[in-house]
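# step 3/5: fold
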Amino acid sequence: MTNTPQSLLSELQARMSELLRNSPAADIERNMKALLGQTFQRFDLVTRDEFEAQLERLNRLQARVEQLEHALAERDRPQD
């Protein structure tokens, strides 16, 4: 079971809806949803899969930069 920010927010909203369904607190429910949505957006969260994909991409880019630096150093080396 993955707990993405979206699934956590959805689950929390569902539970709040269930608690408030028979209550005259519809305005409170809307306000809570808006507040929670804004809070999670400010966290700027990513899933573990997204993080690992970006980390893998960064590692490949670092390796490529090292290759290019080495090739440039070889090219700039004086020829005998």
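# step 4/5: annotate
Residues 46-80 form one domain.
# step 5/5: archive (pending)
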